[in-house]
């Protein structure tokens, strides 16, 4: 890997734009995710599996948003002023929450898959009690697989355009490859497969009506992919280039180098986008419920569940599926579902 390839700032425009994006992300993402956490913990008495997953996702996203201040300062000063320990520690925590976000979204998709394909057994296979254990195991996993951030990041002394020394917190190209494969390609393959199977199953039934909970989770999945894809594309281009597997032209080389700051900042947007998605999904509740609209969206009411009246009373196999697709709380409504609280 060349020295220039590792720089997070190549020109003033990309650096300034990246800093502005991160500043916006901090202002929206921190209070937005804290509001979600408050809504679930203080307003919702009965937590579904999906509500529990959304709570963990909001915690991961909110903590990640709080770390953006370090990167705003990094881009503004064009030098890492926090030392080697913070260089490793901050990026380690970023990786931890990045993995947690995508793994939680993957768990949401798998939960929907189980609920649609095995509606009568979802309370046993994907109960809140089991979900708690799975999520605890997931957090343990993300803390472990983020360890390469501690190993493969270091401080390097470089010079800016004026010849002044600056500190750069840089990773080894191996870290980029590991991040992309384990934190994007593999989990997203599971997500896409899950939704393909879900859509195939729904098309085989009479319940084809678009439901808020399905659209909300799908919007979370799509949003994450849109904002993280450019970051991982840049990762792989840099990996291929550093390994001499594929030599880019000088003009294209400059393009991806100069876009590192922007694509990294865009990746953070996915963590502040979820509160915005929830707000749009629950906008019909805002006038009636005020600040409690988020709880109403996630918890669901008899009004949300009143869309069940179109189901066939003679189709026993569709009873559980009907509960899944008609529940507007983003979770799965089953007669035997336990509380997480």
TrEMBL record:
Q: What Pfam families does this protein's entry cite?
A: 7tm_1
Keywords (A to Z) from UniProt: Cell membrane, G-protein coupled receptor, Glycoprotein, Membrane, Phosphoprotein, Receptor, Transducer, Transmembrane, Transmembrane helix
User: Per the record's keyword annotation, is Phosphoprotein included, yes or no?
Assistant: yes
Q: Where is the G-protein coupled receptors family 1 profile domain?
A: 32-278
Protein topology in the membrane: Multi-pass membrane protein
- From start to end residue, where is composition biased (Low complexity)? 314-327
Could you say which protein family the record assigns here? Belongs to the chemokine-like receptor (CMKLR) family.
Report the protein name in the record. Answer: G-protein coupled receptors family 1 profile domain-containing protein
- Originating organism: Periophthalmus magnuspinnatus
Its ancestry begins with: Eukaryota, Metazoa, Chordata, Craniata, Vertebrata
């Amino acid at each position: 890997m060349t020295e220039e390839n590792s720089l997070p700032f190549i020109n003033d425009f990309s650096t300034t734009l990246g800093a502005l994006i991160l500043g916006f992300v901090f202002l929206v993402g921190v209070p937005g995710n804290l509001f979600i956490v408050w809504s679930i913990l203080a307003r919702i008495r009965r937590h579904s599996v999906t509500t529990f997953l959304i709570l963990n996702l909001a915690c991961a996203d909110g903590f990640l948003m709080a770390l953006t201040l370090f990167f705003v300062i990094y881009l503004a000063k064009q030098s890492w002023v926090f030392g080697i320990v913070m260089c490793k520690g901050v990026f380690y925590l970023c990786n931890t929450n990045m993995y947690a976000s995508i793994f939680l979204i993957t768990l949401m998709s798998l939960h929907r898959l189980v609920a649609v394909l095995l509606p009568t057994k979802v309370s046993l296979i994907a109960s809140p009690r089991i979900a708690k254990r799975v999520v605890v195991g997931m957090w343990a996993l993300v803390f472990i697989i983020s360890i390469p951030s501690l190993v493969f990041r270091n401080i390097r002394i470089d010079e800016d355009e004026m010849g002044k020394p600056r500190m750069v917190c840089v990773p080894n190209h191996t870290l980029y490859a590991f991040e992309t494969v384990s934190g994007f390609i593999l989990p997203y393959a599971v997500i896409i497969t899950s939704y393909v199977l879900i859509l195939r199953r729904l098309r085989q039934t009479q319940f084809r009506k678009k439901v808020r909970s399905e659209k909300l989770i799908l919007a979370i999945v799509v949003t994450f992919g849109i904002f993280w894809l450019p970051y991982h594309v840049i990762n792989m281009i840099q990996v291929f280039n550093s390994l001499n597997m594929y030599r880019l032209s000088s003009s294209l080389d400059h393009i991806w180098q100069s876009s590192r700051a922007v694509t990294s900042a865009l990746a953070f947007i996915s963590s502040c986008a979820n509160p915005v998605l929830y707000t749009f999904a629950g906008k019909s509740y805002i006038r009636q419920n005020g600040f409690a609209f988020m709880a109403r969206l996630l918890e669901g009411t008899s009004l949300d569940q009143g869309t069940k009246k179109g189901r066939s009373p003679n189709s026993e196999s569709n009873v559980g599926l009907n509960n899944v697709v008609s529940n507007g709380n983003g979770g799965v409504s089953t007669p035997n579902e336990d509380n997480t609280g």
